[in-house]
Amino acid sequence: MTEFTPWLSLAGGILIGLSAVLLMALHGRIAGMTAILAGIIPPLPADWAWRAAFLAGAVIGPLAYIASGNSIEFAVPVSMPALAVGGVIVGIGVTYGSGCTSGHGVCGMARLSPRSIVATLVFMAFAIATVFVIRHVIGA
């Protein structure tokens, strides 16, 4: 069962939106995590420093939350091989889709990009289909 946390979810959404707006306003870049991560893999591009800082913030934020005495409870109900296969499938998807959910869903849809709107609809359709098949067809 998932605990519904509207205020924490709203705060997280505001922070994600704020970071995307600030990155676009200050650097003229889209906050797509796949492209940001790819930009810190050697050979390093000239603008690698802001990418490393952005990713460091994505790691330091949750660590600061945990250090303040809070916990982040989660469960992964699948095996490591299933996670690895899922990671490969996602990697293929972001390659062929020219971006990930953060780039298309957060930034692209906010810019009313038709390509991003279609990509996000495809992401969501496949997510819904996957959950349906796993829960109701396979029965896991």
UniProtKB/TrEMBL annotation:
InterPro entries: Sulf_transp_TsuA/YedE
Organism per entry: Aquibium carbonis
Subcellular location: Cell inner membrane
Similarity field: Belongs to the TsuA/YedE (TC 9.B.102) family.
Membrane topology term: Multi-pass membrane protein
Short name of any one Pfam family annotated for the protein: Sulf_transp
Any single GO CC term annotated in Swiss-Prot or TrEMBL for this entry: plasma membrane
Annotated keywords: Cell inner membrane, Cell membrane, Membrane, Transmembrane, Transmembrane helix, Transport
Transmembrane segments: 6-27, 48-68, 74-96, 117-138
Xref: PANTHER family: INNER MEMBRANE PROTEIN YEDE, SULPHUR TRANSPORT DOMAIN-CONTAINING PROTEIN
Annotated protein name in UniProt: YeeE/YedE family protein
